């Protein structure tokens, strides 16, 4: 016959043990659902019964247990990146990119009706974790759609050569401003800190021809710059020489005018004295003229007008030897 007597319960598995086990399990659940740690790169958004309660920074924090309060930790100090037109397989010193193409993202129409492939990235940071969690449902899709719309608009307003060349920086700066304004209107809670255009090339079928045209344009710009360099070197030099000659001429003219004015003033002064005493003034002028003519002579001999009589003059200046110069008397 089968023994129907129930087995005996172990001594240690009594009501007290079961109660203690329940208490321990409850304590573990209480502690695990009451405390949480926020990393230095994060902020924690806390909800109570699904309604927003508060936002906490890094450190250990307490919340009501058993699912009454829930925390959502958001990386607010980490710069996040979205790539368009390409994908990175492995980042590092030697970055590996995917061979897959994304023409739906990169192919655009420029303002002069040319097709161009544009690859770019955006970098953003979450500045409002509450808005990031609750205001927009498809956050990543929204970021990518807005970014594609803005870049397409900016590229479509410019010629292909401007997009490839001089307007790259302008497009990046304007894209940051427009994206931030749009995300602020959506209440997405992020801030775009950088937009970087990567490869900008024409479609594969016309790349060779486009490169030839681009090379010709670069050669043209190089020759223009070389011509401007020669111009800037020679023109200022010629202008300086012209200014120098002009200044010399102006100085010479001023000198001649001043000398002429001085001569006129001196003549007028002499003429005024001459009018007062003509004979005396005439004699004085004659003596001054004779003195000026013979001021460097060391010996003098007087003769009459017909060269008949000679009257040598004694040389009283012993420092200068007598010369045989002869002067005519009146």
Automatic annotation (TrEMBL):
<dbReference type="InterPro" id="IPR050710">
    <property type="entry name" value="Band7/mec-2_domain"/>
</dbReference>
<protein>
    <recommendedName>
        <fullName>Protein HflK</fullName>
    </recommendedName>
</protein>
<feature type="domain" description="Band 7">
    <location>
        <begin position="33"/>
        <end position="214"/>
    </location>
</feature>
<keyword id="KW-0472">Membrane</keyword>
<dbReference type="InterPro" id="IPR001107">
    <property type="entry name" value="Band_7"/>
</dbReference>
<dbReference type="GO" id="GO:0016020">
    <property type="term" value="C:membrane"/>
</dbReference>
<dbReference type="InterPro" id="IPR036013">
    <property type="entry name" value="Band_7/SPFH_dom_sf"/>
</dbReference>
<dbReference type="Pfam" id="PF01145">
    <property type="entry name" value="Band_7"/>
</dbReference>
<comment type="similarity">
    <text>Belongs to the band 7/mec-2 family. HflK subfamily.</text>
</comment>
<keyword id="KW-1133">Transmembrane helix</keyword>
<keyword id="KW-0812">Transmembrane</keyword>
<feature type="transmembrane region" description="Helical">
    <location>
        <begin position="12"/>
        <end position="38"/>
    </location>
</feature>
<dbReference type="InterPro" id="IPR010201">
    <property type="entry name" value="HflK"/>
</dbReference>
<comment type="subunit">
    <text>HflC and HflK may interact to form a multimeric complex.</text>
</comment>
<comment type="function">
    <text>HflC and HflK could encode or regulate a protease.</text>
</comment>
């Amino acid at each position: 016959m089968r023994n129907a007597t129930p087995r005996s319960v172990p001594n240690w598995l009594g009501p007290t043990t079961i109660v203690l086990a329940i208490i321990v399990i409850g304590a573990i659940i209480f502690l695990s659902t009451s405390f949480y740690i926020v990393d230095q790169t994060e902020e924690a958004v806390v909800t109570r019964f699904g309604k927003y309660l508060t936002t906490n920074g890094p450190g250990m924090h307490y919340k009501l247990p058993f699912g009454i309060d829930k925390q959502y930790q958001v990386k607010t100090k980490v710069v996040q990146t979205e790539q368009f037109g390409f994908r990175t397989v492995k980042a590092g010193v030697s970055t590996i990119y995917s061979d897959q193409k994304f023409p739906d993202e990169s192919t655009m129409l420029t303002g002069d009706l040319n097709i161009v492939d544009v690859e770019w990235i955006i970098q953003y940071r979450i500045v409002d974790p509450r808005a990031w969690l609750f205001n927009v449902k498809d956050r990543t899709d929204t970021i990518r759609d807005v970014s594609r719309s803005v870049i397409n608009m900016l590229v479509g307003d410019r010629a292909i050569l401007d997009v490839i060349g001089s307007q790259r920086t302008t497009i990046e700066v304007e894209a940051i401003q427009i994206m931030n304004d749009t995300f602020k209107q959506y209440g997405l809670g992020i801030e775009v800190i950088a937009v970087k255009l990567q490869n900008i090339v024409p479609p594969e079928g016309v790349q060779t021809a486009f490169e030839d045209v681009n090379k010709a344009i670069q050669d043209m710009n190089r020759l223009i710059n070389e011509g401007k360099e020669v111009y800037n070197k020679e023109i200022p030099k010629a202008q300086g020489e012209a200014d120098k000659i002009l200044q010399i001429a102006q100085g010479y003219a001023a000198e001649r005018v001043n000398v002429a004015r001085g001569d006129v003033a001196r003549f007028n002064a002499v003429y005024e004295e001459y009018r007062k005493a003509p004979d005396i003034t005439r004699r004085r002028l004659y003596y001054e003229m004779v003195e000026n003519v013979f001021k460097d002579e060391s010996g003098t001999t007087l003769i009459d007008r017909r060269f008949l009589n000679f009257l040598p003059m004694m040389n009283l200046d012993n420092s200068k030897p007598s010369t045989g110069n002869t002067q005519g008397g009146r």
